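Q: Hi! First time doing this. I have a protein sequence and I read that you can turn it into a structure. Is that right? Here it is:
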Amino acid sequence: MKRSLIYTLMAGAIAMGFSGCTDELEISQHGVLNYETYYQTDEDAQAAAAAIYLQMRGLAYNYLIAKNCLTDDFYAAGGGRNDNADFEQLNEFTFTPNQNLLQGMFESYYQIIYKANVVLGHVGEDSETKLRCRAEARVFRAFANFELTTLWGNPPVVDHELNSSEYSRPNGSTEELWALIESDLKEAIVSGALKSKTNVNDKDTWQVTKEFAEALLGKAYLWQGKNAEAAAEFEKVIGSGLYDLYSDFENVIQVSAKNNCESLFETVRVYDKENVFDNWDFCGAMLRWRLDKMEMTDEFKAVFGTSQNYGFLAPTKDLYDAFVAEEGENGYRLNATMKTYDQMRNIGMSLIVGQSIINEGYFMWKWRSGIDSCPSEGYGFCYTNNFRWMRLAEVYLLAAEANLAAGNQAKCDEYMNKVRARAQVATKSGYTLADIQNEKRLELCGESVRFQDLLRWGLAYDKLKSNGARCPQLQSNGEVTYVTYNNDVNLYGFKQGKHEHLPYPETEIQLNSAITQNPGW
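A: Yes, that's right. Below is the predicted 3D structure, encoded as structure tokens:
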């Protein structure tokens, strides 16, 4: 159900606020929480914090699909044109303020903020557990505001629970938003209440950690051009000794590597055969290969199953070529990230004769899922893998960029070479910003960071102006043809003066007259 920010905030306030009953009857109202009696215990505080974790987990689907559609690394794909119009609109930059995934993402960020504000407004400071829950809430609120600021520019600032006179919130200033992000993260870090892993191999600490907060603070500094400050924060994470690059890059985000030594933060999923659809939205049904149009060997079926999947977000030839230019056709990281159609046929999967899909001849391998992550084969939609929000490789690459900008070439080279050594690519010295940009594209391919990077680097127009110019069609014999759906160049692709910021959802504009729409929309 679509909701505006206003009603999201109102609903929470109303649900928590109705606690009275008539004096005459004095009957307790059921199913309603009372601020005067709730949030008094550690258990209440943990339940309130858990609601933020669940909201974060629920964000992952829109976060992954939308932010990867908005790049030059993927086609919206699927079985054919209009297989998913929402994905195509994002990928071709033909979307409007009514775009469903963007509205869902926008609302999720404010739901995270609302639930964080509930914790900060009502959970006390009289126990270690409560202090930890409050610190976690600040980190989550900072994360949501970072996303809102870098994608929308000047969204409303909501730094407390709103009363009825405050539901119509005007645009905030970018400076005010960055200040709130910084203060939330600094307070959480210095509180001493956030957990840290016990050692580099600790797989049991699943909560938000101090090091994740430090990495987010470094990221916020870097986006503002505070390069020395950013480098210092990343150094704290790296110097903690609590994280290391996972040796098996091919499986770094696979179910077999949950909570591995490289992950700074994951949202948790577990297999529950009684509630398999609880995990539907991220099970790989959208991202796995279009199996209804494929024929598979028995060996392939035994590993990957046979359930229906849709084949969205197919890699572009441009991405493949970028890998090849850096590490060759037999590159370790390339082959751990994607496979060519010929490679897939050798593994045991090919298009049925006469069938075709939207694909340029490349298939994502990095985020593949099989029986191990979708154990309920009869449904095919249960997905037990965790979502990785940040891993150490991203911290190294952010640190390399921050150090380069701050004039520390040696540190830049050190961190770039750590990532490249694991990728089995030649190391060197004297890396440039262009080198870092390319390395980040390859290392973090499909991990939802590229669109914001392109905006920040001023490369979005150059890289995305042709999105939507043509659509590939892969035939069963491996031939790729192209179809033009958008004949007018004005109707597709990234437009300067418009797409630098996403549009505020139309629902918000209609219900909150205080919001000013972003330019070009």
